[in-house]
Amino acid sequence: MHFVYVKVPQRRHATPDLEDLHNALQLALDQAQAGGILGWGTSLPAAEAAAGAPGSFHRIDIELQVLREALSRLGAPAGTELHYTQDGTAWQQSLSVQGWSAPMPGSGTHRPPDR
Predict the structure, then answer these.
(1) Other residues' Cβ atoms within 10 Å of the Cβ of residue 61
(2) Is position 97 within any domain?
């Protein structure tokens, strides 16, 4: 399995029900026997930023084998980012209305330490 994280854009006045997203994503991963959610939280653009500020995301840490298809099926919004490592190299992709972008070099994605 691989460690990845998903960044779902947070919007001040259009916050999706993140609990429903977590549950639906975990169910899809379980049904596909593809992995599981490790945790989640807010990813801010700067240390002094508040949740919901421009550039803030809801981050979901996942260990999985297949994810792009599940996120698209579950209605992840345009602007969702997928960050992952492959053979030790960090990559990222963005979701638009046309679908997922080609993989681009990422910015230091790390697997969290085992607990």
Answers:
(1) 16
(2) yes
Q: Determine phi and psi for 46, rounding to 5 degrees.
A: -155, 155
Domain interval for residue 8: 2-45+55-60+79-105
- In this predicted model, what pLDDT tens digit does every residue of 28-86 receive, in sequence order? 888 888 888 888 888 877 777 776 677 778 888 877 666 787 788 778 889 999 888 77
Task: Cite the DSSP H helix spans in 48-111.
Answer: 68-73
Q: What is the pTM of this model?
A: 0.56
**Domain count across the chain:** 1
Q: What is the 3-state secondary structure (H, E, C) of 2-53?
A: EEEEEEEECCCCCCCCHHHHHHHHHHHHHHCCCEEEEEEEEECCCCCCCCCC
